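Risk register update: the risk of archive-format incompatibility is retired. Evidence:
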Amino acid sequence: MREASFVKQNKEKWIGFENALDNNVKINPDDLASYYIQLTNDLSYAQTYYPESKTLLYLNSLASQAHQKIYITKKESKNKIVSFWRDEFPLFFYQYQKTLLYTFLIFMSAVTIGAVSTLNDDSFIRLILGDGYVNMTLENIEKGEPMAVYKSGSNIGSFLGITINNIRVAIIAFACGAIFSVGTIYVLFSNGIMLGAFITFFYNHGILEKTSTVWLHGTIEISVIVIAGCAGLVMGNSFLFPKTYSRRVAFMKGAKDGLKIVVSTIPFFIIAGFIEGFITRYGEQMPWFIAYGIIFLSLFLIVYYYIIYPIALNKASKTKLIQVSSKSQIT
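Archived output:
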């Protein structure tokens, strides 16, 4: 985009925000923070494409004013944890939704490879899941309890063990992004191939419908592993594509942003662990409409929080900024 077009597209927004700051227009602290995020996004764009321009100097000055006003006027939230998941993170994550899409496509490619390989080679499943697990599952299938593995252990013990393990996998998926994103892609591929092989294994034995028991907890569990992979790519790509920043500064920013994404997944892993520890073991006895209700509700929760809600929140923030701009121009 030409600089003139960039300025024309955003001029009214910037002037309105500047007037609101200069004239001490009363702005809700949370709204002010939201406007500041949008402003820094414009600043980053200008740093990338117009590094020596007056536009960059102007946006730097405006961002500095906004930063000072935020830290002078913003009241401490009574519950920062709630504020983070309700407002701060969704608005922040909007900029990385495209990265999430790429992560999902990488994962689904691996799932497809795992499924096709298992369909064409009976020994592939043993290579991926191991002889011990395959033999145990075959024995359970013969007994008429293919999902018996999920009934073992105590409820609380399973819940804690599974939750901790899932968080560990997420941290690994994120941390491996430091290896130029290749490490994260490897983690995504290994988990995706494993999932594709697992599902096809049950399909080959004519009991694909039994996997609905796994999806009770797996819907959130698998989705959040993909999101953790997105965090890893955010960190790795920041080093590979630093834009106008030095690689060190870009990497530090990417690592911070990626860590924030990983932190956002913790409640979902706890939910998935709870479902696996307390609900999945009863999946085969559960009425189908309850089981599928849990699965679709879990999927909706993920899609809403990481896709729909950030888009809606970003749109609402822009609308509020336009309203503030209009009021400030009138005054």
